[in-house]
Amino acid sequence: MVAEVNTRIRRDDEVTVIAGRDRGLRGKVIKVLPTSGRVLVSKVNMVKRHARQSANSAGGILEKEAPIALSNIQFFCPNCQTGVRLGMKQLEDGRKVRRCRKCGEVQDQ
Ligand SMILES: [Zn+2]
């Protein structure tokens, strides 16, 4: 059974960084990269890129998000105000929703 918590992270989720350089930061998931087990999170794991001067840009140093490993982030539960693991719950209509394993709050509409 695949019970890995981080595979439940989706785009637009708010997550918190639990390990690495940006530990403690929070951001919104921009993109999930399932094949590499990484996600792009806004304002997390920023890297500086030197951009060459071009017709459209003046060049200089640009800051951009780099993918961060799923194992370094956790879903941020607004109720618990902390990073949590997610579980699944089946609703009466058959839909499966994610819920916080700590407080039990359902995270999907
Ligand atoms: Zn919670």
Concise summary:
The protein has no helices and ten strands.
Describe the structure.
This protein is mainly β and 109 residues long. It has a domain at 5-78: Roll (SH3 type barrels), CATH 2.30.30. It is 0% helix and 44% strand. It contains no helices and 10 strands. It has a 6-stranded antiparallel beta sheet, with no helix packed on it. A two-stranded antiparallel ribbon has the order 4-5. A two-stranded antiparallel sheet has the order 9-10. Strand 4 (46-51) and strand 5 (60-65) form a beta hairpin. The protein starts with 13 loop residues before the first strand and ends in a 9-residue tail after the last strand. Mean pLDDT is 90; it is low at 1-6. It binds zinc ion. The site of zinc ion (ZN) has 8 residues, from loops.
Distance between the termini: 25 Å
Q: In sequence order, what are the helices and strands, one letter per element?
A: EEEEEEEEEE
Q: CATH first level of the domain at 5-78: which class?
A: Mainly Beta
Q: Ions, cofactors, ligands: which are bound?
A: zinc ion
The CATH architecture of the domain at 5-78 can be given as Roll
